[in-house]
Design a protein that fits this description.
The chain is mainly alpha-helical. It has 5 helices and 2 strands; from the N terminus they run αβαααβα. Strands 1-2 form a two-stranded parallel sheet.
């Protein structure tokens, strides 16, 4: 009888260990196969990112400075009576306007690339921190046609990237 009890205890321990081992294996496998997907409104993320706002202000300041130069040229044109001098000033005015338009295009394009690169790095860090497999883009083009609002992490990601940008 004693031998039977000992054997039952041993079998029970083996069964418990087996069940525990299978549970751990199932949990690990399940954890690896479950995909965590969230989405963000990329338009909001871009426009509300502090880096975007800072670069926009810097660009607007530069454009205001260049526009003041145009205003000065316009005043000179209106004050000049000599037609040949006026013609030269008008040509300078036209060139300055083209220069500003080119500056705006280049500034916007270059800084958009910089901003999106920074957002991508910060988003990757955020995904790792939160355990997300994917962060999808949702905007007016409707990359995400429907989504549970619980999966919209735009505000959380925006706070995260702004804190990272500020060095926190």
């Amino acid at each position: 009888m004693k031998k039977l009890t000992s054997m039952l205890k041993r079998n029970l321990v083996i069964c418990l260990l087996l069940v525990l081992s299978l549970s751990v294996i199932f949990f690990v496998f399940y954890k690896k196969t479950v995909c965590s997907i969230v989405y963000v409104n990329s338009n909001e993320l871009f426009t509300e990112f502090k880096m975007t706002k800072e670069l926009k202000l810097a660009g607007e300041k530069e454009i205001r400075l260049k526009n003041s130069q145009i205003d000065s040229l316009r005043n000179l044109v209106s004050l000049t009576s000599d037609e040949s001098s006026k013609s030269v000033l008008i040509e300078q005015l036209i060139n300055k306007k083209q220069e500003i338009a080119e500056f705006e295009n280049q500034y916007t394009q270059l800084n958009s690339q910089k901003i999106w690169s920074r957002i991508a790095v910060y988003s990757s860090d955020y995904a790792k921190l939160k355990g997300y497999d994917f962060i999808l883009n949702s905007n007016n083009n409707q990359t995400v046609l429907a989504g549970n609002k619980d999966k919209d992490v735009t505000k959380e990601l925006l706070n995260f990237i702004n804190e990272k940008y500020e060095g926190f």
